[in-house]
Write a structure and sequence with these properties.
With 143 residues, the protein is of the alpha/beta class. The chain contains three helices and five strands; from the N terminus they run H-E-E-E-H-E-H-E. The protein has a five-stranded mixed β-sheet, with helices on one face.
Length: 143
């Protein structure tokens, strides 16, 4: 007795041309559920009022202090280079005791690492400086 499965034509090399789409639909439904769950979490942010860009020159006063940071991280008080962050902190502490307290204007080189400018901001905070400004190059008109 012989058991035969399939057609009786004897053509065993026939290609089955049916694509099973069930795994594809399962994967797509799982992805859809994941996106529906994660998108509201990603889009939820803390509401903050971001500053608007102002294209007006700052009014410099003689008591303002310019601190510059070059691309290598060297810190300059006016035109004189400071030895290290301790020298910067000592000068900032002396400036913070003045009445009225001067405005610290930080000029960071565009190629300087953020870390270098961040160290100056940190020193200002530790010294008790209340007013810090970042000086930037104005954009050309028409852009």
């Amino acid at each position: 007795m012989a058991l035969s499965i399939g057609s009786d034509s004897g053509d065993d090399d026939e290609v089955l041309a049916v694509i099973n789409t069930t795994p594809l639909v399962d994967v797509m439904l799982v992805l859809l559920i994941i996106f529906l769950i994660t998108v509201p979490v990603v889009l939820h942010t803390v509401p903050v009022a971001l500053p608007k860009f102002r294209d007006q020159p700052a009014q410099a006063t003689p008591q303002d202090i310019d601190i510059s940071v070059d691309r290598s991280g060297a810190i300059y008080w006016g035109n004189s280079r400071l030895a290290d962050n301790k020298a910067l902190l000592a000068r900032l502490e002396a400036a913070s005791s003045r009445v009225p307290q001067p405005l610290i204007q930080i000029r960071g080189d565009q190629d300087a690492r953020y870390e270098y400018v961040g160290k100056v901001v940190d020193a200002c905070e530790r010294a008790g400086i209340a007013h810090i400004a970042f000086i930037t190059q104005p954009q050309p008109h028409g852009h």
